[in-house]
Amino acid sequence: MLKHKDILGLYDLSAEEIDEILTVGESMKKLLRQNIKKLPHLQGKSVTTLFYENSTRTRCSFELAAKYMGAHVVNIAAESSSVKKGETLVDTGKTLDAMKNDVIIIRHPMGGAPRLLAQTVKAHVVNAGDGMNEHPSQALLDMLTMRENFPTLEGLNVAILGDIRHSRVAKSNLFGLKKMGANVRMYAPKTLIPTAIDRLGAKVCTSREEAVDGADVVMGLRIQLERQHGGLFPSLGEYAKFYGVNEEVMKYAKPGALVMHPGPVNRGVELTSGLIDGDTSRIEEQVLSGIAVRMAILFLLTKEEL
Ligand code: CP
What we know:
Layout: H1 15-33, E1 46-51, H2 57-68, E2 72-77, H3 89-98, E3 103-108, H4 113-120, E4 124-130, H5 136-149, E5 157-161, H6 168-179, E6 183-187, E7 203-204, H7 208-212, E8 217-220, H8 236-243, H9 247-250, E9 258-260, H10 273-276, H11 283-302
Parallel strand pairs: 1-2, 1-3, 3-4, 5-6, 5-8, 6-7, 8-9
Helix pairs in contact: 1-5, 1-11, 2-11, 3-4, 5-6, 5-11
Phosphoric acid mono(formamide)ester binds at residues 55-58, 129, 138, 262-264.
């Protein structure tokens, strides 16, 4: 049983809670593999997605997860909502609460926005990515994908390379993987590594090769140009050449090491096309894990009310 009303970040969750979500997610994924998409777990529940930033995977997979379990689903894009007329986040939340929503899934450019919403509404709040802070369901789906390929997360060597400074995915993975006993190495240009990330448990490496050496999993991260103000690296071409993950760099990893990326991928920048489409890539598998883990989150949050 989850101890929290909301899923705001993996910093908040215990290893037991993470394990429970992953275990239920594994069961959900087995059903999805059998093409079973009609389950009763959320019958009579209302779920709203409230997105103030663009999304393909996260919004779509939360919507499908809720629909596969029988929920009523409403999607709100801030661009076409009363937010454009000046309504505050808190007032939007109160409005959604008054409509008897059971779960509100929010993506927002400001770190902490989901927490503010959660303090305001009775509905369960799920953080679908808040600024540079956390993206818990992404890290959970990443861990689910890893757990399917290895007997345990304990002792797993995970290398994360890319725009770590602006990445909520990197932070949620760091918090989650460390709680589950994995080792996390990080590498990026110095301009894209947040100061003191090592104090949160990451090993900050001085080269791609050091980060990838003996890794079981190599995760590339998207260059988040929308959160950058220029001058952090010379050009995308030079970034790819000196910091991207390619076949040469992967020779340092364990044989068969998994290649992962949260998407959307800038092909040929963070990862080569050969790696994205190769046998060891789990990028498409991550997408299916995304629906499964989001089904688990929605089920576990609302289960005590059934
Ligand atoms: N990984 C991820 O959050 O993708 P979207 O931005 O498409 O939701």
